[in-house]
Amino acid sequence: MSREYSSGSIKLLFSSPISSLQIILGKYFSMLIYGLIMMGSVLVLVVVAFFSIKDFDLSLVLSGWLGLYLLMATYAAIGLFMSTLTSYQIIAALGTLTFISFLNFIGSLWQHIEGVREVMYWFSLKGRADESIRGLICSEDILYFILVSGMFLGFSVLKLQFAAEADVKLTIEEFILLNMIKMHTDQILQNIAIATGKNKSVVMRMIDSLEQKGLARRTVNPDDRRENLLSITERGAEVLSQYKEIEKRVSAELLSGIPADKIACFFEVADAVSRKARGK
Predict the structure, then answer these.
(1) For the segment 68-122, what is each residue's pLDDT rounded down to a tens digit?
(2) If you write DSSP's letter for every residue of 122-166 in order, what string do you get?
(3) What are 245-259's pLDDT values in tens digits?
(4) What is the DSSP string of 194-262?
(5) In the beta sheet, which residues pair with residue 220?
(6) Which of 152, 168, 262, 272 is the most buried (most CB within 10 A)?
(7) Is the dihedral of CA 94, 97, 102, 103 positive or negative?
(8) For residue 192, what pLDDT band results from cuts at 50, 70 and 90?
(9) pLDDT band at 195 (very low <50, low <70, confident <90, very high)
(10) pLDDT of amino acid 187
(11) How many CB atoms are located within 10 Å of the residue 168 CB?
(12) Residue closest to 165 by CA, chosen among 14, 21, 24
């Protein structure tokens, strides 16, 4: 994920029609497959040894292989989470090594405190694959690998969601345009330009900005391939809803204490001025 942040391609991921969970799981499963390929070379040696060595203990070797693979999967989950925290890959790598070292050391902390001792021991990563290497598949260790990996994957999803939400900033014109696209979906650029009273180049730049932020998308018009249809994305609908809530709160604060008839009169005057300015 650090590479996505540093290269700016994270914006493309945010604009794509996939969730933060799917992004994280896609990254994680690719790491698992890569690790499986690397450790698969060891299985080739195991197969050769099985057919060439008499009384070869296959179950012992496979048990150790499984323990090491689960340990690698846990390291991958921790590394993936650390990479969501920074755009610098070196810092993410050092942070991963530091955190893994901490998890190996945590089992020796606060051993004199009753209750805390058991918790620290359970969280410790040290020696978790030892039983598997000895040929004993321990359900406690397997559960540990699953829970710790799942916990860090969950943290990664939350961090990515927070980053996506914090990354979106709308101007007033973009807010109006996004609201118009939502109300009249599958609009063409010319209609949007006419409705907003702006030329096509200005509207095009605004649409490009919304598309880069993952709030709107353009699709080819099946009836006329020279035209693009505009529609709002799921993420765009969420951001628009958030901005509307902010608009409601600000409007309520600004209009509090003002009589309703004066408010209505103000909007009537503003509408008349707006129509006259547009020549209607």
Answers:
(1) 888 888 889 988 888 888 878 888 888 888 888 888 877 666 666 676 667 777 7
(2) HH--TTTTHHHHTT---HHHHHHHHHHHHHHHHHHHHHHHHHHHH
(3) 766 776 777 667 777
(4) HHHT--HHHHHHHHHHHHHTTSEEEEE-SS-TTSEEEEE-HHHHHHHHHHHHHHHHHHHHHHTTS-HHH
(5) 228
(6) 152
(7) positive
(8) low
(9) low
(10) 61
(11) 18
(12) 14
Rg (CA), the chain: 28
The residue type at 227: E
Is-contact 164 215, C-beta < 8 A? no
């609201």: which residue's tokens? Answer: 179
| CA–CA separation, 110 and 125 (whole Å) | 16
Identify whether the C-beta of residue 187 lies closer than 8 Å to the C-beta of residue 230. Answer: yes
Q: Are strands 187-188 and 228-232 parallel, antiparallel or unpaired?
A: antiparallel
Query: What sign does the CA torsion over 9, 11, 16, 22 have?
Result: positive
Q: Which two tokens stand for residue 23?
A: 């992004």
Is the Cβ–Cβ distance between 77 and 29 less than 8 Å?
A: no
Number of DSSP helices (H) and strands (E) in the chain, helices first:
13, 3
